[in-house]
Amino acid sequence: LYAPNLPVAEKTPSVIFVISAQGKVQNPHISKSSGNHEVDAKAVECVSKAGPFDPVPAAITETGDVALDMELRINRLPESQRKAADQRNAIIERAKSLVSEGKLEEGLSLLEQAHKDKPDEIEFSKNLADIYYDQAQMLLLKDPKSNKAIEYADRAFKLDPDNKAAKEIVDKHEIVRYDEKKFTEQK
Question: CA Rg, the chain, in Å?
Answer without folding.
Answer: 21
